[in-house]
Specification:
The protein has about 150 residues and is an alpha+beta fold. The protein contains four helices and three strands.
């Protein structure tokens, strides 16, 4: 005895689109659109770029900062414009040429490039790295304080 296993197909209901419009949109397109919406919302809310120097207001000018390195204090001079840090000069330190001074030069370039002091220490020169970043943060704190005083 043979049985016929045919299924009955339902007729296509076009009104289903009105009930669930997402079902017609392909999944990759929907995911990309959702990701773009989240990114746009984050940009509007200012959630991106935390730790960025440019997101804070600074009074333009030159500021000096001090931090504690491995072999003693580290002094820096920073030049600020309305756009952010224009230049950083290490004015004095007692760190050795390698790895301390080399690490500070590397971090100097990174701070200028990224506009942030939220950086990891250079391996092998942790105290020198932290001291340099501390000195830059000290100078930036003075610039923030000056703009608060002007308000």
């Amino acid at each position: 005895m043979e049985t016929n296993h045919t299924r009955k197909l339902r007729p296509h209901n076009r009104s289903n689109f009105l009930q669930n419009p997402v079902s017609v949109i392909s999944a990759p397109f929907f995911i990309a659109a959702l990701a773009a919406a989240v990114l746009f919302a984050a940009l509007l809310a200012g959630c991106l770029g935390t730790g960025s120097i440019l997101e804070s207001a600074f009074f333009p000018g030159a500021y000096e900062g001090k931090g504690q390195g491995y072999r003693g204090p580290i002094y820096v001079r920073i030049e600020l414009s309305p756009a952010g840090i224009e230049d950083i000069v290490i004015t004095d330190h007692r760190e050795g040429a390698y790895p301390g001074a080399a690490a500070m030069e590397e971090l100097l370039d990174l701070v200028l490039e990224t506009g942030s002091t939220d950086l990891d220490a250079v391996s092998g020169a942790t105290y020198s790295s932290r001291g340099f970043l501390e000195a830059v943060d000290d100078a930036l704190a003075q610039a923030r304080e000056k703009i608060r005083d002007k308000r």
